[in-house]
């Protein structure tokens, strides 16, 4: 299945694995790329820019196919040295970068000057147009269904994607809620050129998270997420557990960030992935977990997605021959 995305990224299938803090390591990124998609390493999962350089080199040893690095720029009390991470990405000649979280203008200019293909991920049409105007080669649009930060507009993919597709000129990746061939075909029908997935790739054999986390994703339904930090306008979709429900309750009752600071601590959430104790802290997952029934290898997953999409395409073509459709 060839689209503008496969051509631009030099990949076999129009499927990208989005950046995932604590999850998107070299193993996962390389497995996705080896399976014909685009794997992405999360820069800030590495404790230092030097560690990121080592992780990129490790990924190169695992695959000779294209892969990317995600650089997420989020508001922080003590921000990481974003420019130094950026410099490592450039120095290591990574072919693709995914930026997310804030206006990427400065970073995109630097990446473009280094000949790196840039994907900017955002959650609204206005931010997508802005990213295009500052030079993003590809825009990823995350609908309200997505894991992580859906923004504050609450527009689901079914409306957001065509709204973006009819204004954007650069290729579009549909993101949030995708897990199978039906989703891929729907994304293409809505005007996207491919899909990007987080939760589905977190629940694969090669994903580095504890098996009990993967089992929890398989067991969960689409209703088992919470939107935390809404009153602070820094909404995040995470797994529903005692910790996330407490965060929602405290803030709904008028609490401040200080009242939930310890509950939402990243170090605590990271332990969930390591220990497999899904009640230990806040961990990120999307509504699409309700559509995930197995822990597949990345290769089996991608083969299944494109095969399923092809069956749907052929069936639709048989049901609506082009001569009848006009
Ligand atoms: C565990 C996890 C961690 C994530 N961390 C990040 C991150 O650090 N930066 C980022 O841009 N997106 C992050 N995301 C969002 C994904 O890249 C992607 O946009 C999202 O998962 C899409 O929704 P889906 O899970 O329904 O596929 C994360 C998602 C998950 C599941």
Provide an overview of this structure.
It is a single chain. Helix 2 (26-34) packs parallel to helix 3 (49-62) and helix 3 packs parallel to helix 4. By secondary structure, this protein is of the alpha/beta class. A hairpin with a 7-residue loop joins strand 9 and strand 10 (236-239). It has 15 helices and ten strands. The chain starts with a helix and ends with a helix. The protein has two domains: 4-208 and 295-325, Alpha-Beta Barrel (TIM Barrel), CATH 3.20.20.70; 211-287, no CATH class. Helices cover 43% and strands 14% of the residues. The protein has an eight-stranded parallel sheet with strand order 1-8-7-6-5-4-3-2. Flavin mononucleotide binds next to strand 3 and helix 9. Residues 18-21, 23, 42, 70, 72, 100, 121, 142, 145-148, 175-178, 197-200, 202, 284-286, 288 line the site of flavin mononucleotide. This is Nitronate monooxygenase family protein. It comes from Pseudonocardia zijingensis. Pfam families: NMO. Keywords: Flavoprotein, FMN, Monooxygenase, Oxidoreductase. GO terms for molecular function: monooxygenase activity.
What is the secondary structure topology, with strand pairs?
Blueprint: H1 4-9, E1 15-17, H2 26-34, E2 39-42, H3 49-62, E3 67-72, H4 82-91, E4 96-100, H5 105-113, E5 117-122, H6 125-133, E6 138-142, H7 157-165, E7 172-175, H8 181-189, E8 194-197, H9 199-202, H10 211-219, E9 225-228, E10 236-239, H11 242-252, H12 257-260, H13 266-275, H14 298-319, H15 322-325
Parallel strand pairs: 1-8, 2-3, 3-4, 4-5, 5-6, 6-7, 7-8
Antiparallel strand pairs: 9-10
